[in-house]
Amino acid sequence: MKKFYSQPGFTLSEVLIVVAILLILAGALVGFGKHLKQQARASLCECTIGVLIAAIEQYHDWHDAFPDPANDPVMSPIENLYAQLYNQPRSCALCEQIEKSQKGDIDGDRAFEFLDPWGKPLDYRYLPGMTFPVVESGGPDGDLATAADNISSR
Ligand SMILES: [Ca+2]
Ligand SMILES: [Ca+2]
After folding, report:
1. 93 inside domain
2. Counting ligands in written order, which one lies closest to the CA of residue 81?
3. How many structural domains is the chain composed of?
4. How many helices (H) and strands (E) does the chain have?
5. Is 36 inside a domain boundary?
6. Counting Cβ atoms within 10 Å, is residue 52 exposed (0-12), middle (13-18) or buried (19+)?
7. Which of 7, 25, 30, 80 is most buried (most C-beta within 10 Å)?
Protein backbone atom coordinates (compact mmCIF):
# COMPACT_ATOMS: atom_id res chain seq x y z
CA MET A 1 0.00 0.00 0.00
CA LYS A 2 1.28 3.44 -0.99
CA LYS A 3 1.61 6.09 1.65
CA PHE A 4 1.06 9.76 0.84
CA TYR A 5 2.99 12.16 2.93
CA SER A 6 1.97 15.72 3.03
CA GLN A 7 5.17 17.67 2.77
CA PRO A 8 5.52 20.88 4.74
CA GLY A 9 5.92 24.04 2.63
CA PHE A 10 4.02 25.83 -0.10
CA THR A 11 2.57 24.65 -3.33
CA LEU A 12 3.73 26.25 -6.56
CA SER A 13 0.43 28.10 -6.97
CA GLU A 14 0.74 29.56 -3.44
CA VAL A 15 4.25 30.78 -4.20
CA LEU A 16 3.08 32.29 -7.49
CA ILE A 17 0.22 34.13 -5.76
CA VAL A 18 2.62 35.58 -3.15
CA VAL A 19 5.07 36.65 -5.88
CA ALA A 20 2.22 38.28 -7.83
CA ILE A 21 1.08 40.20 -4.72
CA LEU A 22 4.66 41.34 -4.01
CA LEU A 23 5.05 42.54 -7.62
CA ILE A 24 1.80 44.51 -7.40
CA LEU A 25 2.91 46.12 -4.11
CA ALA A 26 6.34 46.97 -5.55
CA GLY A 27 4.68 48.54 -8.60
CA ALA A 28 2.42 50.62 -6.39
CA LEU A 29 5.42 51.78 -4.32
CA VAL A 30 7.37 52.78 -7.44
CA GLY A 31 4.33 54.70 -8.74
CA PHE A 32 3.91 56.45 -5.40
CA GLY A 33 7.63 57.30 -5.32
CA LYS A 34 7.40 58.86 -8.79
CA HIS A 35 4.36 60.85 -7.70
CA LEU A 36 6.24 62.15 -4.63
CA LYS A 37 9.24 63.09 -6.79
CA GLN A 38 7.01 65.06 -9.19
CA GLN A 39 5.35 66.83 -6.25
CA ALA A 40 8.76 67.76 -4.79
CA ARG A 41 9.86 69.15 -8.16
CA ALA A 42 6.66 71.16 -8.54
CA SER A 43 7.15 72.61 -5.04
CA LEU A 44 10.77 73.52 -5.81
CA CYS A 45 9.63 75.20 -9.04
CA GLU A 46 6.94 77.23 -7.20
CA CYS A 47 9.56 78.23 -4.62
CA THR A 48 12.04 79.40 -7.29
CA ILE A 49 9.35 81.40 -9.10
CA GLY A 50 8.24 82.93 -5.78
CA VAL A 51 11.78 84.12 -5.02
CA LEU A 52 12.11 85.50 -8.56
CA ILE A 53 8.88 87.48 -8.19
CA ALA A 54 10.18 88.96 -4.91
CA ALA A 55 13.49 89.80 -6.63
CA ILE A 56 11.63 91.43 -9.55
CA GLU A 57 9.65 93.54 -7.04
CA GLN A 58 12.92 94.63 -5.38
CA TYR A 59 14.34 95.51 -8.79
CA HIS A 60 11.20 97.52 -9.59
CA ASP A 61 11.39 99.38 -6.25
CA TRP A 62 14.95 100.43 -7.08
CA HIS A 63 14.68 101.20 -10.81
CA ASP A 64 10.97 102.09 -11.05
CA ALA A 65 10.84 99.68 -14.00
CA PHE A 66 10.70 95.92 -14.47
CA PRO A 67 13.68 94.00 -15.88
CA ASP A 68 13.53 94.23 -19.68
CA PRO A 69 13.30 90.79 -21.37
CA ALA A 70 14.98 92.30 -24.46
CA ASN A 71 17.59 94.42 -22.63
CA ASP A 72 20.41 92.67 -24.49
CA PRO A 73 19.01 91.40 -27.81
CA VAL A 74 21.68 88.68 -28.01
CA MET A 75 20.36 87.05 -24.83
CA SER A 76 17.10 85.21 -24.20
CA PRO A 77 14.47 86.85 -21.95
CA ILE A 78 15.38 84.64 -18.96
CA GLU A 79 19.11 85.38 -19.47
CA ASN A 80 18.26 89.09 -19.50
CA LEU A 81 16.27 88.66 -16.30
CA TYR A 82 19.19 86.82 -14.67
CA ALA A 83 21.71 89.51 -15.66
CA GLN A 84 19.53 92.42 -14.52
CA LEU A 85 18.52 90.87 -11.18
CA TYR A 86 22.15 90.05 -10.39
CA ASN A 87 23.17 93.66 -11.19
CA GLN A 88 20.94 95.07 -8.45
CA PRO A 89 22.24 94.32 -4.92
CA ARG A 90 18.89 93.69 -3.22
CA SER A 91 17.44 91.52 -5.97
CA CYS A 92 20.83 89.79 -6.23
CA ALA A 93 20.68 88.91 -2.52
CA LEU A 94 17.28 87.29 -3.09
CA CYS A 95 18.51 85.37 -6.14
CA GLU A 96 21.33 83.96 -4.01
CA GLN A 97 18.61 82.09 -2.07
CA ILE A 98 17.62 80.16 -5.19
CA GLU A 99 19.07 76.65 -5.21
CA LYS A 100 22.20 76.22 -7.31
CA SER A 101 20.52 73.44 -9.28
CA GLN A 102 17.98 76.01 -10.51
CA LYS A 103 20.62 78.14 -12.23
CA GLY A 104 22.86 77.29 -15.13
CA ASP A 105 23.95 77.98 -18.67
CA ILE A 106 22.40 75.10 -20.53
CA ASP A 107 22.91 76.57 -24.00
CA GLY A 108 26.59 77.27 -23.28
CA ASP A 109 26.60 80.93 -24.36
CA ARG A 110 28.07 82.08 -21.00
CA ALA A 111 24.84 83.86 -20.07
CA PHE A 112 23.12 82.17 -17.12
CA GLU A 113 19.47 81.19 -16.97
CA PHE A 114 17.10 80.38 -14.13
CA LEU A 115 16.05 76.75 -14.61
CA ASP A 116 13.09 74.68 -13.55
CA PRO A 117 13.58 71.35 -11.70
CA TRP A 118 13.17 69.51 -15.02
CA GLY A 119 16.30 71.24 -16.35
CA LYS A 120 14.58 73.66 -18.75
CA PRO A 121 15.06 77.45 -18.69
CA LEU A 122 12.15 79.34 -17.14
CA ASP A 123 10.22 81.68 -19.41
CA TYR A 124 10.17 85.40 -18.62
CA ARG A 125 7.62 87.70 -20.27
CA TYR A 126 6.92 91.37 -19.81
CA LEU A 127 5.12 93.23 -22.54
CA PRO A 128 3.82 96.80 -22.57
CA GLY A 129 0.38 96.90 -21.01
CA MET A 130 1.08 94.06 -18.57
CA THR A 131 0.74 95.11 -14.93
CA PHE A 132 3.42 92.62 -13.81
CA PRO A 133 5.87 90.31 -15.61
CA VAL A 134 5.21 86.56 -15.84
CA VAL A 135 7.71 83.83 -14.93
CA GLU A 136 6.64 80.39 -16.11
CA SER A 137 7.85 76.79 -16.31
CA GLY A 138 6.64 74.37 -18.97
CA GLY A 139 6.16 71.85 -16.15
CA PRO A 140 7.05 68.13 -16.22
CA ASP A 141 6.51 67.90 -20.00
CA GLY A 142 8.90 70.83 -20.56
CA ASP A 143 6.48 72.43 -23.02
CA LEU A 144 5.05 75.92 -22.45
CA ALA A 145 2.37 75.26 -25.11
CA THR A 146 0.71 72.61 -22.93
CA ALA A 147 -0.58 74.81 -20.13
CA ALA A 148 -2.26 72.15 -17.96
CA ASP A 149 0.99 71.16 -16.19
CA ASN A 150 2.74 74.53 -16.41
CA ILE A 151 3.77 76.32 -13.24
CA SER A 152 3.36 80.07 -13.54
CA SER A 153 3.61 83.19 -11.39
CA ARG A 154 0.16 84.23 -12.67
CA1 LIG B 1 22.81 80.68 -21.61
CA1 LIG C 1 3.52 72.08 -20.10
Report:
1. yes
2. 1
3. 1
4. 3, 5
5. no
6. buried
7. 80
The Cα–Cα gap between 77 and 105 comes to 13
Query: Which is nearest to 65 in space by CA: 98, 91, 43, 39?
Result: 91
Residue 34 located in a structural domain: no
Three-point CA angle 81, 72, 102, nearest 5°: 30
Q: Which amino acid is at 102?
A: Q
CB-based neighbours (< 5 A) of ligand 2, an ion: 138-139, 141, 143, 146, 149-150
The ligand whose atoms approach the alpha carbon of 138 most closely is: 2
Note the ligand closest to the C-alpha atom of 109: 1
Determine the structural domain holding residue 109 and report its residue range.
42-152
pTM: 0.84
Reduced to 3 states (helix: H, G, I; strand: E, B; else coil), residue 125 is strand
